[in-house]
Amino acid sequence: MERKNRQILSRGQKYKQKAARTRGAPEVVFDKDSRLEYLTGFHKRKVERQKKAQEFAKEQERLARVEERRKQREQRRSEMEQQLESARAAMIGSLDSDGEASEEESWHGFSDSEGGVRPILKRHQDVYDDATVEIETLEPNDNFAYLARLNNVALERSEKVLDDSIDRAKKYAEFLGVEDKPKQKKKKFRYLTKAERRANQRKATSNKRRK
User: Fold this and answer.
1) In total, how many domains does the chain have?
2) What residues make up the domain containing 60?
3) What is the model's pTM?
4) Which of 28, 56, 164, 175 has the fewest CB atoms within 10 Å, counting from its CB?
């Protein structure tokens, strides 16, 4: 007779119960330290994740800066190469133009029409070894007043003009605040005599008694 599924299942349940009675149920043992670390380490693990994320972001920024510097170096190198190429091309063009000009303007020697030109430096000049020096004094002479009149200079007003200029300079210095300030006299220090000290002490004691 064929067994039904219910019988098969019930038989397996009976076997399980029999095995549990003979062998005992499996015991699950928890590690106290691991369990405590797992339960109390949520904040710690969160901080570690944030720290790793920050380190990853910093590393990405560093790599981006390195890549940017590499691109700038390549750009500068390409620009330098272009400048060198343009300078080389310009130099070659200038050399070619100079060569053509030199071929057109080649020198064929002196012509006969230049024979009548006299040299410039062919000039006679006498040189004397002796020289005389005249020395004049700085004292006023008779011609000084005459020269002053010729130049429209009034000598009689020179002193007045000088005094007026000095006065104007002093006033301008006072206006700017750079005039010479009078120096204050230093107070002389001296020690009191014995009698003066006693008199001052009596005055002080009398003032205290009045208060």
Assistant:
1) 2
2) 39-99
3) 0.30
4) 28
Domain ends where: 84, 99, 114?
99
Spatial CA neighbour of 198 closest among 190, 208, 206: 206
Whether 104 is in a domain gets the answer no
How far are the Cα atoms of 111, 113, 119 from residue 116, in angstroms, in the given order? 11, 7, 10
Domain annotation covers residue 77? yes
Tokens read off for 129: 């070894």
pLDDT digits (tens, 9 = 90+) for 158-170: 777 778 888 888 8
Residue with tokens 């920024």: 61
Question: Does residue 191 sit within a domain?
Answer: no
Residue type, 189: F
Tokens 């000049």 sit on residue: 125
If you write DSSP's letter for every residue of 111-124 in order, what string do you get? -GGGGGPPPSS---
CB-hemisphere CA count at 13 Å for 42? 2
Condensed to tens digits (0 to 9), the pLDDT of residues 93-124 reads: 777 666 665 555 555 555 555 555 554 444 55
- In angstroms, the CA 101 to CA 16 distance is 116
Query: Quick one: which of 205, 203, 187, 207 has its CA closest to 195?
Result: 203
